[in-house]
Design goal:
Low-confidence stretches: none
Radius of gyration: 28 Å
Shape: elongated
Helix content: over 70%
Structural class: mainly alpha
Largest sheet: none
Order of helices and strands: HHHHHH
């Protein structure tokens, strides 16, 4: 939305050679530019647009860096906690559990938890973005926005069903992964003997 506010005055000036015939957004941005003592030209508007894009991308980079750092610290904490629990458990635990299942839990399942955490963060961020754009769209045209939202919900219903099917497939995948890792580790341990 901020990018659109930056590019609107450039398009406005290219279409309307006279600044007085420009839109309200262009006039407001012209006032802000004049307040800082800068000339109101297309070059100034392009510089403002470039600054908006650079600022937006810088914020995006900082956000992704912070989220990656948070993700790695949570992954480290989960892995160490799980490993510590394995090591503090009694000998009976290791005799009853198969090594492949333990290995699969340490490697695969922790990765899946972290992926789920990343997806949750992205869903939250995109949810906030959707709310912002929905409010903006409702202020522009509530009838058209309502029609688009209803159509989107109808089109998204099949994907909810696919999500449930995917969940059951994921459970089966984890079970098969446990069996696969167990077979490999038991074979390798037998080969050592």
């Amino acid at each position: 939305a901020l990018s659109a506010l930056g590019i609107a005055p450039i398009i406005d000036i290219l279409i309307n050679k006279n600044i007085e015939d420009a839109s309200a957004v262009t006039l407001k941005l012209s006032e802000i530019i004049s307040y800082f003592g800068l000339p109101v030209t297309i070059i100034t508007f392009m510089c403002v647009y470039l600054a908006i894009i650079c600022g937006k991308n810088l914020l995006n980079i900082i956000t992704h860096w912070y989220l990656s750092k948070l993700n790695m610290s949570i992954q480290k904490e989960i892995t160490i906690d799980l490993f510590r629990k394995f090591m503090n458990s009694g000998w009976q635990f290791f005799i009853l559990k198969k090594l492949g299942k333990l290995n699969n839990t340490l490697i695969s399942e922790v990765g899946k938890i972290i992926t789920m955490l990343e997806d949750g963060i992205n869903i939250t961020a995109n949810g906030i973005r959707v709310i912002f754009y929905t409010v903006l769209a409702l202020t522009i045209s509530w009838k058209l926005t309502t029609l688009i939202v209803i159509t989107s919900v109808i089109l998204l219903l099949p994907f909810l069903l696919i999500g449930k099917i995917g969940y059951s497939i994921g459970k089966e995948h984890t079970s098969l992964g446990n069996e696969y890792q167990t077979t490999i580790y038991e074979s390798l341990n037998s080969a050592k003997l």
